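Service request form, structural biology core

Requester: graduate student, group of Dr. S.
Request type: structure prediction, single chain
Budget code: on file
Notes: please return the result as structure tokens.

Sequence provided:
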Amino acid sequence: MWKSSKAPWTGYSKCTGMLPLVERQQVKVICIDPRGSQWVVYGRGKGNGETSSAKCSDNPNVGVYKVGAHVYRI
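Core staff response, request fulfilled:
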């Protein structure tokens, strides 16, 4: 898991070792604005070895607070 180094702030996750065709992963990004308000944005579900991404906002003052990954079975 990682985040971009400049605006627009984006979080990324890439998982390997998942079961093919059965498990998917998606990035979970907690965004924060200058007032301290937080919200969660999820990326699209991706398969083994693929990268999921989610952008907080086009506003350069809105940043990524935390980045995680959500793994689920389909």
